[in-house]
Amino acid sequence: MSDLPAWIAAIAAIAAPSVTALINNIHQTRMYKRKMYTQHKIEVIESYIAACGERVFSITYESYPRLCAEIFLYVPKCYWHDIEKLNEQVNKKFDERDNKLSLSLLSKVSQELSLYLEKSRK
């Protein structure tokens, strides 16, 4: 009976580093996934803004259609209305577009998303 505390201490001494390593690995994996998600979110938002800018002043739009839908996956709903207005303006035919309004909306969305990204990085 007197050996029981010694056995418990020995098992704990052997198991503790393994449990600590396991917990550390799980935490590191979660942090890596969060970092990759945030990095992808930033890339999508930057690409969307760039594609909208290109689309406002030209007829070509290679990556815009994909980004126009994907942007909604990475921004909160409070920005959706402005993004939808911008998409509506950018999707008009080149000669029917109001470039002043498009630039105004692009600037507004860009500023809002920039502030959003700053908050999400903290």
Give the overall pLDDT as a whole number.
82
Helix content: over 70%
Instruction: Provide the low-confidence segments as ranges.
Output: none
Number of helices: 4
H/E element order:
HHHH
* % residues in beta strands: under 5%
Using the CA coordinates, give the radius of gyration: 25 Å
Description:
- With 122 residues, the chain is mainly α.
- It has a domain at 37-121.
- 81% of the residues lie in helices and 0% in strands.
- The protein has 4 helices and no strands.
- Helix 1 crosses helix 2 (64-74), helix 1 runs antiparallel to helix 4 (99-121) and helix 3 (80-90) packs antiparallel against helix 4 (99-121).
Outline of this structure?
The chain has 122 residues and is mainly α. The chain has helices at residues 4-57, 64-74, 80-90, 99-121.
